[in-house]
Amino acid sequence: MRLPKRPIHALMLWIRRQPPKVKAFLAVVSGMAALVLLRAVVHDHDNLFVAAEAVHAIGISVLIYKLTKEKTCAGLSLKTQDLTAIFLAVRLYCSFVMEYDIHTLLDSATLVTTLWVIYMIRFKLKSTYMEDKDNLPYYYVLVPCAVLALLVHPSTSHHLVNRISWAFCVYLEAVSVLPQLRVMQNTKIVEPFTAHYVFALGVARFLSCAHWVLQVLDSRGHLLTALGYGLWPSLVLISEVVQTFILADFCYYYVKSIVGGQLVLRLPSGVV
Length: 272
Known about the structure:
The structure is a single chain. The chain is an all-alpha fold. It has helices spanning 7-16, 20-41, 46-70, 78-98, 102-124, 138-151, 160-175, 178-187, 192-218, 222-226, 232-245, 248-259, and strands at residues 189-190, 265-266. Helices cover 73% and strands 1% of the residues. The protein has a two-stranded antiparallel ribbon.
Protein backbone atom coordinates (compact mmCIF):
# COMPACT_ATOMS: atom_id res chain seq x y z
CA MET A 1 0.00 0.00 0.00
CA ARG A 2 1.46 3.35 -1.07
CA LEU A 3 1.60 6.05 1.54
CA PRO A 4 -0.06 9.35 0.54
CA LYS A 5 2.33 12.10 -0.43
CA ARG A 6 2.77 15.00 1.91
CA PRO A 7 1.12 18.21 0.63
CA ILE A 8 4.48 19.96 0.25
CA HIS A 9 5.81 17.09 -1.88
CA ALA A 10 2.69 17.13 -4.03
CA LEU A 11 3.04 20.90 -4.49
CA MET A 12 6.71 20.60 -5.48
CA LEU A 13 5.87 17.87 -7.98
CA TRP A 14 3.07 19.96 -9.47
CA ILE A 15 5.35 23.00 -9.84
CA ARG A 16 8.05 20.88 -11.43
CA ARG A 17 5.62 19.70 -14.12
CA GLN A 18 4.62 23.24 -15.13
CA PRO A 19 6.04 24.94 -18.26
CA PRO A 20 8.67 27.70 -17.80
CA LYS A 21 6.16 30.53 -18.33
CA VAL A 22 3.91 29.21 -15.56
CA LYS A 23 6.92 28.81 -13.25
CA ALA A 24 7.96 32.40 -13.95
CA PHE A 25 4.43 33.61 -13.24
CA LEU A 26 4.32 31.65 -9.97
CA ALA A 27 7.70 33.10 -8.95
CA VAL A 28 6.45 36.65 -9.54
CA VAL A 29 3.23 36.00 -7.63
CA SER A 30 5.16 34.43 -4.74
CA GLY A 31 7.53 37.39 -4.64
CA MET A 32 4.65 39.86 -4.56
CA ALA A 33 2.91 37.87 -1.82
CA ALA A 34 6.12 37.86 0.23
CA LEU A 35 6.43 41.65 -0.20
CA VAL A 36 2.84 42.16 0.96
CA LEU A 37 3.48 39.96 4.00
CA LEU A 38 6.71 41.78 4.87
CA ARG A 39 5.02 45.15 4.52
CA ALA A 40 2.30 44.06 6.94
CA VAL A 41 4.62 42.41 9.48
CA VAL A 42 7.70 44.66 9.44
CA HIS A 43 6.74 48.22 10.32
CA ASP A 44 10.22 49.73 10.14
CA HIS A 45 11.45 48.66 6.75
CA ASP A 46 15.03 49.67 7.56
CA ASN A 47 15.06 46.50 9.65
CA LEU A 48 14.89 44.51 6.40
CA PHE A 49 18.29 45.86 5.36
CA VAL A 50 19.74 44.93 8.76
CA ALA A 51 18.12 41.50 8.43
CA ALA A 52 19.69 41.12 4.97
CA GLU A 53 23.12 41.87 6.42
CA ALA A 54 22.49 39.43 9.28
CA VAL A 55 21.52 36.62 6.89
CA HIS A 56 24.60 37.37 4.78
CA ALA A 57 26.67 37.12 7.95
CA ILE A 58 25.10 33.73 8.69
CA GLY A 59 26.06 32.58 5.20
CA ILE A 60 29.65 33.69 5.75
CA SER A 61 29.65 31.90 9.12
CA VAL A 62 28.72 28.71 7.26
CA LEU A 63 31.68 29.31 4.95
CA ILE A 64 34.00 29.84 7.91
CA TYR A 65 32.83 26.55 9.44
CA LYS A 66 33.36 24.74 6.12
CA LEU A 67 36.87 26.13 5.72
CA THR A 68 38.01 25.58 9.31
CA LYS A 69 36.31 22.28 10.17
CA GLU A 70 36.01 20.54 6.82
CA LYS A 71 39.42 21.82 5.66
CA THR A 72 38.22 22.16 2.07
CA CYS A 73 37.07 24.91 -0.28
CA ALA A 74 35.77 22.53 -2.96
CA GLY A 75 32.72 23.95 -4.71
CA LEU A 76 33.48 27.56 -3.74
CA SER A 77 34.24 30.27 -6.26
CA LEU A 78 37.28 32.37 -5.40
CA LYS A 79 36.22 34.84 -8.10
CA THR A 80 32.88 35.49 -6.41
CA GLN A 81 34.71 36.16 -3.15
CA ASP A 82 37.13 38.52 -4.95
CA LEU A 83 34.26 40.39 -6.61
CA THR A 84 32.44 40.59 -3.28
CA ALA A 85 35.54 42.10 -1.65
CA ILE A 86 35.84 44.63 -4.49
CA PHE A 87 32.27 45.92 -4.27
CA LEU A 88 32.41 45.98 -0.46
CA ALA A 89 35.65 47.97 -0.52
CA VAL A 90 34.23 50.45 -3.03
CA ARG A 91 30.99 50.74 -1.04
CA LEU A 92 32.96 51.36 2.14
CA TYR A 93 34.89 54.15 0.41
CA CYS A 94 31.59 55.68 -0.73
CA SER A 95 30.16 55.34 2.78
CA PHE A 96 33.08 57.18 4.35
CA VAL A 97 33.02 60.08 1.88
CA MET A 98 29.26 60.31 1.30
CA GLU A 99 27.28 58.96 4.26
CA TYR A 100 28.71 57.28 7.36
CA ASP A 101 26.11 55.16 9.19
CA ILE A 102 25.43 51.71 10.68
CA HIS A 103 25.67 50.18 7.20
CA THR A 104 29.32 51.24 7.12
CA LEU A 105 30.08 49.17 10.21
CA LEU A 106 28.18 46.16 8.84
CA ASP A 107 30.04 46.37 5.53
CA SER A 108 33.36 46.64 7.36
CA ALA A 109 32.72 43.41 9.25
CA THR A 110 31.58 41.64 6.08
CA LEU A 111 34.67 42.81 4.18
CA VAL A 112 37.02 41.54 6.88
CA THR A 113 35.45 38.08 6.89
CA THR A 114 35.38 37.98 3.08
CA LEU A 115 39.10 38.81 2.94
CA TRP A 116 39.73 35.99 5.43
CA VAL A 117 37.80 33.57 3.17
CA ILE A 118 39.89 34.71 0.19
CA TYR A 119 43.09 34.16 2.19
CA MET A 120 42.03 30.64 3.14
CA ILE A 121 41.15 29.69 -0.45
CA ARG A 122 44.27 31.24 -2.00
CA PHE A 123 46.83 29.95 0.47
CA LYS A 124 45.72 27.53 3.18
CA LEU A 125 43.33 25.36 1.16
CA LYS A 126 44.62 25.96 -2.34
CA SER A 127 44.97 22.23 -3.06
CA THR A 128 41.19 21.75 -2.74
CA TYR A 129 40.25 24.78 -4.87
CA MET A 130 38.48 23.74 -8.08
CA GLU A 131 40.15 26.28 -10.35
CA ASP A 132 39.14 24.50 -13.55
CA LYS A 133 35.46 24.81 -12.58
CA ASP A 134 35.78 28.47 -11.53
CA ASN A 135 36.25 29.54 -15.13
CA LEU A 136 34.13 32.68 -15.59
CA PRO A 137 36.61 35.46 -16.54
CA TYR A 138 36.71 38.50 -14.24
CA TYR A 139 36.33 40.91 -17.14
CA TYR A 140 32.97 39.37 -18.10
CA VAL A 141 31.64 40.89 -14.88
CA LEU A 142 33.88 43.88 -14.14
CA VAL A 143 34.00 45.53 -17.57
CA PRO A 144 30.21 45.79 -18.16
CA CYS A 145 29.73 47.12 -14.60
CA ALA A 146 32.46 49.75 -15.08
CA VAL A 147 31.12 50.87 -18.46
CA LEU A 148 27.55 51.07 -17.15
CA ALA A 149 28.76 53.06 -14.12
CA LEU A 150 30.48 55.56 -16.40
CA LEU A 151 27.31 55.97 -18.45
CA VAL A 152 24.66 55.85 -15.71
CA HIS A 153 25.42 57.12 -12.20
CA PRO A 154 23.83 59.36 -9.55
CA SER A 155 23.22 63.03 -10.31
CA THR A 156 23.82 64.19 -6.75
CA SER A 157 26.15 66.99 -5.65
CA HIS A 158 29.00 64.61 -4.75
CA HIS A 159 32.26 64.46 -6.69
CA LEU A 160 31.99 62.66 -10.04
CA VAL A 161 34.48 59.94 -9.01
CA ASN A 162 32.41 59.16 -5.92
CA ARG A 163 29.18 58.99 -7.92
CA ILE A 164 30.70 56.64 -10.49
CA SER A 165 32.15 54.49 -7.70
CA TRP A 166 28.77 54.28 -6.03
CA ALA A 167 27.12 53.15 -9.26
CA PHE A 168 29.91 50.61 -9.90
CA CYS A 169 29.46 48.88 -6.54
CA VAL A 170 25.66 48.74 -7.01
CA TYR A 171 26.02 47.05 -10.41
CA LEU A 172 28.84 44.74 -9.28
CA GLU A 173 26.93 43.55 -6.22
CA ALA A 174 24.03 42.54 -8.46
CA VAL A 175 26.16 40.13 -10.53
CA SER A 176 29.05 39.19 -8.21
CA VAL A 177 27.52 35.75 -7.57
CA LEU A 178 27.74 34.73 -11.25
CA PRO A 179 31.12 32.93 -10.91
CA GLN A 180 29.73 30.88 -8.01
CA LEU A 181 26.76 29.91 -10.14
CA ARG A 182 29.14 28.92 -12.94
CA VAL A 183 31.01 26.61 -10.53
CA MET A 184 27.76 24.95 -9.50
CA GLN A 185 26.71 24.72 -13.14
CA ASN A 186 29.96 22.93 -13.96
CA THR A 187 29.85 20.49 -11.04
CA LYS A 188 26.06 19.87 -10.93
CA ILE A 189 26.49 18.55 -7.38
CA VAL A 190 26.54 21.08 -4.54
CA GLU A 191 27.65 19.91 -1.11
CA PRO A 192 25.60 21.08 1.92
CA PHE A 193 27.73 23.94 3.28
CA THR A 194 28.12 25.59 -0.12
CA ALA A 195 24.38 25.18 -0.74
CA HIS A 196 23.57 26.77 2.65
CA TYR A 197 25.89 29.69 1.86
CA VAL A 198 24.39 30.38 -1.58
CA PHE A 199 20.85 30.04 -0.22
CA ALA A 200 21.72 32.57 2.50
CA LEU A 201 22.91 34.93 -0.24
CA GLY A 202 19.60 34.47 -2.04
CA VAL A 203 17.57 35.23 1.10
CA ALA A 204 19.77 38.23 1.96
CA ARG A 205 19.37 39.69 -1.50
CA PHE A 206 15.61 39.17 -1.46
CA LEU A 207 15.39 41.04 1.86
CA SER A 208 17.57 43.83 0.47
CA CYS A 209 15.36 44.03 -2.62
CA ALA A 210 12.23 44.04 -0.43
CA HIS A 211 13.73 46.90 1.59
CA TRP A 212 14.19 49.02 -1.53
CA VAL A 213 10.80 48.19 -3.06
CA LEU A 214 8.89 48.88 0.16
CA GLN A 215 10.81 52.13 0.71
CA VAL A 216 9.81 53.27 -2.76
CA LEU A 217 6.18 52.31 -2.14
CA ASP A 218 6.08 54.03 1.26
CA SER A 219 7.56 57.23 -0.17
CA ARG A 220 5.20 57.02 -3.17
CA GLY A 221 8.14 57.19 -5.52
CA HIS A 222 9.83 60.16 -3.84
CA LEU A 223 12.81 57.98 -2.88
CA LEU A 224 13.63 57.42 -6.55
CA THR A 225 13.55 61.13 -7.29
CA ALA A 226 15.76 61.76 -4.24
CA LEU A 227 18.40 59.49 -5.80
CA GLY A 228 18.62 61.79 -8.82
CA TYR A 229 17.18 61.91 -12.30
CA GLY A 230 17.61 60.03 -15.57
CA LEU A 231 18.11 56.27 -15.71
CA TRP A 232 19.98 55.95 -12.40
CA PRO A 233 16.99 55.61 -9.99
CA SER A 234 15.41 52.93 -12.17
CA LEU A 235 18.69 51.02 -12.55
CA VAL A 236 19.17 50.96 -8.76
CA LEU A 237 15.83 49.23 -8.38
CA ILE A 238 16.45 46.95 -11.37
CA SER A 239 19.83 45.93 -9.90
CA GLU A 240 18.14 44.88 -6.68
CA VAL A 241 15.57 42.83 -8.59
CA VAL A 242 18.22 41.25 -10.85
CA GLN A 243 20.40 40.03 -7.98
CA THR A 244 17.31 38.44 -6.41
CA PHE A 245 16.14 36.62 -9.54
CA ILE A 246 19.66 35.43 -10.40
CA LEU A 247 19.47 33.15 -7.35
CA ALA A 248 15.75 32.35 -7.47
CA ASP A 249 16.14 29.16 -9.49
CA PHE A 250 18.84 27.81 -7.19
CA CYS A 251 16.80 28.64 -4.07
CA TYR A 252 13.85 26.68 -5.49
CA TYR A 253 15.96 23.54 -5.93
CA TYR A 254 17.56 24.10 -2.53
CA VAL A 255 14.17 24.15 -0.79
CA LYS A 256 13.06 21.16 -2.87
CA SER A 257 16.18 19.25 -1.80
CA ILE A 258 15.73 20.10 1.89
CA VAL A 259 12.06 19.11 1.84
CA GLY A 260 13.03 15.84 0.18
CA GLY A 261 15.59 15.13 2.89
CA GLN A 262 18.58 15.23 0.54
CA LEU A 263 21.86 16.40 2.07
CA VAL A 264 23.60 16.88 -1.26
CA LEU A 265 21.94 19.18 -3.79
CA ARG A 266 21.90 17.84 -7.35
CA LEU A 267 21.07 20.42 -9.99
CA PRO A 268 19.41 19.37 -13.26
CA SER A 269 20.72 20.57 -16.60
CA GLY A 270 19.92 24.18 -17.41
CA VAL A 271 19.75 25.38 -13.79
CA VAL A 272 21.88 28.42 -12.93
